[in-house]
Specification:
This protein is of the alpha/beta class. Helices cover about 35% and strands about 25% of the residues. The chain contains 13 helices and 17 strands.
Length: about 375
């Protein structure tokens, strides 16, 4: 453990946040969350601490099983075919985690379809060196590094598919509350012993405009999150997409459900060692902070930038449509022994569990391929 960390938190990061609060007289929750997650070298996502996987704080679909990457590969191959099987097909993954999805897509393509594998040009967009280093280790271990390039930002033009998996729900969010019919914003202060919250005027008119555009408001006395960065990212991705698809995997709801009056405290959650909590001020720099995505807004952002929404389905539907059950051979069939069979069976169940990963939404939007019949999107 370094001099900057205690057993429970990153002390240097906490002190940096407190110093900014004292200097500015309080900061928005969005700014607090950004510092907690993304301060260079100190933030949760920018440190070298293990985050994903069974030994980390949470599990995403690629860490559950290589089956997720293989099934996603099937959908990508179908997209490639819908584009006329071009000689080059870009897959641009933004925020690639450990690199497991990239590794498993490439490994599956190499095994399943030589023409598709030859056409694949995989690009990982990662601005932080710590996760980029982990991704390189994962991919180099499979001898696939020559098939992957890294960038700090999206390419100017993409012909293929821009892909993200649990990227938008990790973006910093504003937290707001409805008080006497007016919108207030949560600001974070320091009382000398602990972080505290104050309700103040919104820091930007974009927050009021956000709800006006949706035609919904948080219920009286309710708290809610507003992710202004997610629609902005979708617009940026849409601008980069020359022809092809934007495929988004993330937890979320349509706006009417996300901001329903019965949802009194929003969807903000923190994760540490696979335990969830609602306290973002604990374990500074050592826990994930996340909130659900407003799919009404992100879908609208893509459509406003010229994309056509093909469909939004659950991950469970997506994987089942593309033949996930076929990946589970009968017990004792071929080289599959009983132990391997049950490991794979547990993975399949976990990926489609409607109370867990199976409820992730899969949204696919397209430019120039509005009528593409994609198997994963069947209702």
């Amino acid at each position: 453990m370094s001099e900057f960390e205690s057993a429970d938190e990153n002390v240097a990061l906490k002190e940096a946040i407190i110093a900014r609060i004292e200097r500015e007289g309080g900061i928005t929750f969005r700014d607090f969350m950004e510092m907690a997650l993304y301060t260079p070298l100190l933030g949760y996502y920018t440190s070298r601490r293990e985050k994903m996987g069974r030994s980390g704080d949470y599990v995403t679909s690629p860490e559950v099983s290589p089956l997720f990457g293989a099934i996603t590969g099937r959908q990508l191959r179908e997209m490639w075919a819908a584009m006329g099987a071009p000689g080059q097909f870009q897959v641009v993954e933004a925020g690639a985690g450990t690199g497991a999805l990239c590794r498993d897509v490439l490994r599956w393509a190499r095994r399943a379809d030589a023409a598709f594998a030859d056409a694949l040009r995989y690009v990982i967009v990662e601005a932080n060196e710590a996760p980029a280093g982990r991704q390189r280790e994962t991919i180099e271990a499979e001898g696939l590094s020559e098939r992957v390039t890294w960038r700090e930002a999206l390419p100017e033009t993409v012909e293929g598919c821009i892909l993200s998996n649990e990227l938008l729900d990790a973006m910093p969010v504003h937290r707001v509350a409805a008080v006497n019919g007016a919108l207030r914003e949560i600001h974070v202060t320091w009382n000398g012993n602990a972080f505290a919250e104050e309700l103040r005027e919104p820091s930007t008119p974009d927050l009021t405009a956000y709800f006006d555009r949706l035609g919904v408001q948080p219920g009286e006395g309710c708290r809610a999150e507003v992710n202004l960065a997610a629609p902005d990212w979708v617009r940026t991705a849409a601008a980069a997409l020359g022809r092809g698809f934007l495929m988004t995997f993330d937890y979320g709801y349509e706006a009417k459900e996300l901001y329903a009056p019965w949802r009194t405290d929003g969807t903000l959650l923190c994760f540490h060692r696979h335990n969830a909590s609602a306290d973002p001020y604990a374990r500074i720099g050592r826990q994930d902070i996340t909130s659900h995505v407003d799919f009404t807004s992100v879908r609208g952002a893509g459509e406003g930038a010229g994309l056509h929404t093909l469909e939004i389905v659950s991950q469970s539907e997506f994987l089942m449509n593309l033949g996930l059950p076929d990946a589970l051979p009968a017990m004792g069939e071929g080289d599959t022994n009983m132990e391997e069979y049950y490991v794979r069976r547990r993975s399949v169940v976990e990926l489609v569990d409607p109370a867990g990963l199976g409820r992730i939404k899969v949204m696919v939007q397209a430019r120039g391929l509005e009528g593409a019949p994609l198997t994963g999107l069947r209702r």
